[in-house]
Specification:
The chain is α/β, with parallel strands linked by helices and 250 residues long. The chain has a single domain, classed as Ribonuclease Z/Hydroxyacylglutathione hydrolase-like (Metallo-beta-lactamase, Chain A). Helix content is 16%, strand content 30%. It is built from five helices and 16 strands. The strands form three sheets. A seven-stranded mixed beta sheet has the order 6-5-4-3-2-1-16, covered by helices on one side. Helix 3 packs parallel to helix 4 and helix 4 crosses helix 5. The radius of gyration is 17 Å and the shape is globular. The model has no long low-confidence stretch (mean pLDDT 95).
């Protein structure tokens, strides 16, 4: 009998290992830095440290969410599903050997493991490309993962039609170009978004950003610590260091 539990280990940025009633899901894989794109925090897990994966889910096509170098090194490509927000990303994953790579559109629902379903939720766009968020449902818990989402209004829209979640993983660094709108939520939006979702717990993701050439063009505007300071009594913020495993209390 599978123990009913939810656990989170943050790898880096929006790359997270989720354990959903014993089934492991990797989000937004990012294991290899580029000269122009640095982590700004330690890598929490190596690819060799990962357990067998029920699925890999991706929110966005940026290299720090969609690390093709790392995907090449993942084992069990023949039977590990990869779920992505564009058809081209699915084709690229299949070219790397992931036979079960699939483009999922907003609103689609699928079962990713026995007793674990996943719903694709709109998370806005980066230029013309859609971003996916995902809600995972088990027999006892619901988890919202938004690795690249900027607007609380999207979560408000979701909640008009669906049930609350127990745990929300949302961005907090408010990354934005020098000119133009935020790419992801800052701490105030993450706290508001978790509250809108009905979550009792917020685990911040998309927190650090290393000093690299892109730092000249992009700025951050918050951290997980800021989200902790902003949270009200009905919301617990778990500021999770990379590599540390945390389990949601039943």
């Amino acid at each position: 009998m599978i123990k009913q539990s939810i656990a989170v280990t943050r790898v880096v940025n929006s790359c997270v290992l989720l354990e959903l009633d014993g089934h492991a899901v990797l989000t937004d894989p990012w294991f290899t830095e580029r000269w122009f794109l640095r982590r700004g925090e330690p890598l929490g897990l190596r690819i060799a440290d990962l357990p067998p994966l029920a699925a890999v889910v991706v929110t966005n096509l940026a290299a720090n969410h969609w690390d093709l170098r790392a995907l090449r090194m993942l084992p069990s490509k023949d039977f590990t599903p990869v779920y992505v927000p564009t058809a081209r990303m699915a084709r690229r994953a299949r070219a790397l050997g992931f036979r079960h790579a699939e483009h999922l559109r907003w609103g689609q629902v699928c079962e990713i493991a026995p007793g674990v379903s996943m719903q694709v939720v709109p998370a806005g766009q980066t230029l013309v490309w859609p971003n996916n968020a995902y809600v995972f449902s088990t027999a006892s818990s619901r988890v919202f993962f938004g690795g690249e989402i900027a607007e609380v209004a999207l979560l408000e829209r979701y909640r008009t039609e669906d049930r609350p979640v127990d745990l929300a993983l949302l961005p907090v660094n408010g990354l934005r170009p020098l000119f133009g709108p935020r790419l992801v939520m800052g701490p105030a939006q993450a706290v508001a978004g978790a509250s809108v979702l009905g979550a009792g717990v917020l685990v911040p993701v998309h927190d650090a950003h290393g000093r690299d050439p892109l730092s000249v063009l992009f700025r951050t505007s918050g951290t997980a610590s800021d989200a902790t300071a902003l949270a009200g009594p009905g919301l617990r913020v778990v500021d999770l260091p990379t590599g540390q495993r945390w389990e949601l209390a039943p």
